[in-house]
Structures are given as structure tokens and as C-alpha cells.
């Protein structure tokens, strides 16, 4: 697959991304930790912190994948988690991890689409999505669903890659993301999926535009926090 074949919006993108994650599921966790030198664990912990979880909260982790964000959240409070993803193979891996940790009572998995959530209005105290919003077909459709299913006062925490803003680190990042990462990942998994990654980050709205999207869906107290020189950003908002 050459770069020009990637689709960056709409239903065709959804199908492309679903196939991609079904294909890389088995190596996903290993490559996450390997390619980020383990920093991804810290990024997820910070995204969970931003949710201000309390005991008895109900958390929806959208695009849960292999479940790492939901599992991190479960370490911080006595909560219930529902993890939603449309990739069957990613969910299978999440299921094994949840069972191995004896957490099936508190972590439920649902196969579904972030843009059409199978939940009633005002259901969740908190909603997270880690490295998922960049992959949906229509960002505003997903954000509108997040707003709908959160209770009034509910918190959203969105963890996503961003382009670092500093000159030096920006260049280093682009070299790593564009040249090293697809090659390394290509040896162990799908080169196409890891060429799509930097391209999809470039297509994602910048920090200001993304916060405007959150505000236009109705979220209040919208803010962002850059992590690790701005390689990753956490966006927060309140319904
Ligand atoms: C990069 S992975 C992130 C997984 C996990 N949240 C993490 O932090 O490692 C992106 C996930 O988003 C899922 N995804 C993408 N678009 C989706 C959609 N429209 N509905 C549900 N899941 C989606 C993919 O199947 C994939 O599992």
C-alpha cells in the first residue's frame, strides 16, 4: 500500500482502519511499548488522571483496542469500565488480558462504532479514548456521540498523537515517525499500518482546531496538555 492509498475521512476510512487493526492486533501491545520505549504507559496514566475518577464511576473507554487505558483506569479507583472497539481481534486480546487479571466483573467489552454508540443518553461519568479519535471516519460525529452518552458534568479525556512544536524536537520526531518507525514496525508487523500512523497524525486537526471542535459539540472547560515535548496531547472537557 503506498501512502497515497490511505483514506483519511468517512466510511471508507473506517473500513480501512478496521482491517488494519484486525491485522496488527497480535503485535500491537509489543510494538506500542517497543516503539515508544515504554513511555506510552505514562501517557495512558496521565490520560486517566485527567478523568478525575471516583469510586462507583462508570467509564466508557472508546476505541479500547487491547484494553490498556481501561486497565490503567481500574488501578486508580473502584469503577466499572465498558470498553468499546470495532476490531474483533483487538477485543479478543483485551478479553484475554481482562480474564488473566480476574477483572471480568468490572471491565465489560462491546464491539461497536465510536460514531454510533450503543448506549443511552447521559449514561457515563467519564469517557476516555486513547489514540482512537484520529482513526474515526468523522471526528465531529464521534465527539457528538461522546457528549450525548456522558452525564451532565461528565468528563472526557482524549489522548492523541500531535506534532511537536519545537524546531529541534519536531525534526527529530518527523525523522523517527516518517523513516525509522515504519521500517522497524515493518520488520515485525505491517509496514502499511505504521506508514499510515504519521500520515494520519498530519491529517489530524491541530490543537486549537481540535479544541474548537470539542467546544462546538458543547463541551466546557476545554483544555489540552502536551506530554513529552508535544508528541502526545491530552484534551479534556466537561459536559
Ligand atoms: C491505536 S488503537 C488504540 C487502542 C487503545 N485505546 C490504546 O490506547 O492502545 C486504535 C483503536 O481504535 C479502534 N477504532 C478506530 N476507529 C473506530 C471506530 N470508529 N469505532 C470503534 N473503534 C475504532 C481500532 O479498532 C483500534 O483498536
Low-confidence stretches: none
CATH superfamily: Vaccinia Virus protein VP39
* Content-based structural category: alpha/beta
Q: What gap, in angstroms, lies between the N and C termini?
A: 40 Å
CATH-defined fold name: Rossmann fold
Q: Could you tell me the number of beta strands?
A: 7
Helix fraction by DSSP (H/I, runs of at least 4): 40-55%
- Count of structural domains: 1
Give the helices and strands as they follow along the chain: HHEHEHEEHEHHHEE
Bound molecules: S-adenosylmethionine
Give the second-level CATH assignment, the architecture.
Answer: 3-Layer(aba) Sandwich
Main sheet characteristics: 7 strands, mixed
**Could you tell me the radius of gyration in angstroms?**
17 Å
Number of helices: 8
Overall mean pLDDT stands at 92
Tell me the name of the CATH class: Alpha Beta
Fraction in beta strands: 15-25%
The strands making up the biggest β-sheet line up spatially as 3-2-1-4-5-7-6
- The global form is globular
What is the secondary structure topology, with strand pairs?
Layout: H1 10-35, H2 39-49, E1 58-62, H3 68-74, E2 80-85, H4 88-100, E3 107-111, E4 124-130, H5 139-149, E5 150-161, H6 167-188, H7 191-203, H8 207-216, E6 220-227, E7 232-238
Parallel strand pairs: 1-2, 1-4, 2-3, 4-5
Antiparallel strand pairs: 5-7, 6-7
Amino acid at each position: 500500500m503506498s501512502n497515497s492509498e490511505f483514506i483519511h475521512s468517512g466510511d471508507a476510512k473506517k473500513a480501512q482502519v478496521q482491517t488494519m487493526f484486525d491485522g496488527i492486533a497480535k503485535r500491537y501491545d509489543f510494538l506500542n511499548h517497543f516503539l515508544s520505549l515504554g513511555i506510552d504507559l505514562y501517557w495512558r496514566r496521565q490520560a486517566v488522571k485527567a478523568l478525575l475518577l471516583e469510586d462507583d464511576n462508570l467509564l466508557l473507554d472508546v476505541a479500547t483496542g487491547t484494553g490498556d487505558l481501561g486497565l490503567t483506569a481500574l488501578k486508580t479507583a473502584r469503577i466499572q469500565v465498558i470498553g468499546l472497539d470495532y476490531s474483533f481481534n483487538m477485543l479478543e486480546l483485551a478479553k484475554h488480558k481482562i480474564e488473566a487479571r480476574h477483572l471480568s466483573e468490572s471491565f465489560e467489552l462491546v464491539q461497536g462504532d465510536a460514531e454510533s454508540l450503543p448506549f443511552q443518553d447521559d449514561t457515563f461519568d467519564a469517557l476516555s479514548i486513547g489514540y482512537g479519535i484520529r482513526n474515526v471516519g468523522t471526528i465531529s460525529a464521534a465527539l457528538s456521540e461522546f457528549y450525548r452518552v456522558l452525564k451532565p458534568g461528565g468528563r472526557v479525556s482524549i489522548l492523541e498523537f500531535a506534532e511537536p512544536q519545537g524546531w529541534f524536537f519536531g525534526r527529530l520526531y518527523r525523522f523517527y515517525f516518517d523513516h525509522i518507525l515504519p521500517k522497524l514496525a515493518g520488520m515485525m508487523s505491517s509496514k502499511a499500518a505504521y506508514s499510515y500512523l504519521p500520515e494520519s497524525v498530519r491529517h489530524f486537526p491541530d490543537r486549537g482546531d481540535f479544541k474548537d471542535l470539542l467546544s462546538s459539540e458543547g463541551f466546557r472547560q476545554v483544555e489540552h496538555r502536551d506530554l513529552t515535548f508535544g508528541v502526545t496531547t491530552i484534551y479534556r472537557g466537561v459536559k
